[in-house]
Amino acid sequence: MIEFRSVSKRFPDGTLAVDDFSLQIPARQVTVLVGSSGSGKTTLLRMINRMVDPTSGTIEIDGHDIAGVEPVRLRRSIGYVMQNSGLLPHRRVIDNIATVPRLTGVPRPVAHQRARELMDTVGLDRSLAERYPGQLSGGQQQRVGVARGLAVDPNILLMDEPFGAVDPIVRSDLQQEVLRLQRELAKTIVFVTHDIDEAFLLGDRVVILESGGHIVQQGTPEEILAAPVNDFVASFIGSDRGKRRLIASERRGRGDDRVLIDAGGYPVGVISAPGGKLASGSASPRSRSISNKTDQAGDA
Amino acid sequence: MVWLWNNLGLVLGLAAEHARLSAIPILVGFAASIPLGWVASRFAWLRGLLLTVFGIVFTIPSLALFVVMPLLLGTRILDDLNVIVALSLYAIAMMLRGAIDGFGSVSPDVLQSATAVGFAAASRFWTVQLPLAGPVLLANLRVVSVSTVSLLSVAALIGKGGLGYLFTNGYQRAFPEEIVIGIVFTLLIAAVFDIVLVLLGRLLLPWSRRAGRAA
User: Fold this and answer.
1) How do residues A244-276 score in pLDDT, each as one tens digit?
2) Closest chain B residue to the Cα of A130, Cα to Cα
3) Total structural domains in chain A?
4) Distance from CA of B148 to the nearest CA of A (A)
């Protein structure tokens, strides 16, 4: 578990990026920090591996104050995936993935063997191992970035808008990949994004931030969708635009399905309605295909 | 050509001296410009200061610099060191801006991500920042190399100019063939140095060519 206790950060130029922020991030779940730019979300993320040190307050990982841990050692124990992958352009894919194990003194053959296994884990063909990052597509680079983040088998994985720069189809693939990996590996993932749909798709818990790292609302996606605490959240998650308010139309789909439309009149999905009555609570909330489709219909 | 065969020993001796007296300043200039370029790329005020100082050094006519070197260094008139120090100063002056550009060309994202995954400061410099600045450093070093080889001949006027001796001697004797031979051998040395640098670049920076081709 990661715990922020009354953490503030004032940068040398005087900006108060984070103001008295407290949060418990549960272990082995995906916690998404979501907010627009200036909400302090990236600063918060970077405090976890001491890329940024708080001006006041403490951050604990499993009960240990990280201010007492040497930054380089701390960072090597935490996976980090960032936008544009942040790969080393002068090293081959295999060496990029093996970067951190090599830094910690793992012998090259062992590190490379592990790196090849990680390529399988993140769905990269092993034939790409000898390439340089510049020779890969954006999506492949991001997969290498994830593999590198997993290379030391960290308990904690920090993801800083990792899929912000790839096209929507690739992003969707990568998001599914993260969900699959998380089912297999169950890491403590802290994920930063400005995309609320991404947050709802990936997050076990979602923390919506306003400027200065003020938490406006936190909870499971279902809780937030069901009861946005104020207009800011309603606007942020799109419920005020009718994007999240779905109506079962009279149109019948296959079998007992009814077509769902949003408030803008766009069809967004189907819901089963045996005997004309809408089903309730049968599907697990974890499969968030409906909200995902809402996004695509809304953007269309 | 007959003159060349008759004086081959002299020409090759001068060529060897030329190569030695220009290679050392090229290496010194490169080695010195790396720490200077690195600090200059980190601290803006230092960048202005260093660029101004070496800008002024670069405007000093080479002949004047060669002549005053014994006074500044307390060396004898015919000491190699006079030429080596003077040419090293020019090499740094030429290389400095390139070194600053080189370090500036490294993506801040890559450096930040290197820090984030746990590179310590020193290993980040040697294994990430320096190699990534490599292509720009190399491009500038090639210019410095050619310039230094050519500039050295001026030092013939103080008796330490390598093949430059053939220019002054050929001029005094009104013997163009000697001058032409001097030019050809100077070009050969510059070409050999350049080829060595390019090959070193391919060896040490294999990624820059392959990544470039893919993009």
Assistant:
1) 777 777 777 677 778 888 777 777 788 877 776
2) B207
3) 2
4) 30
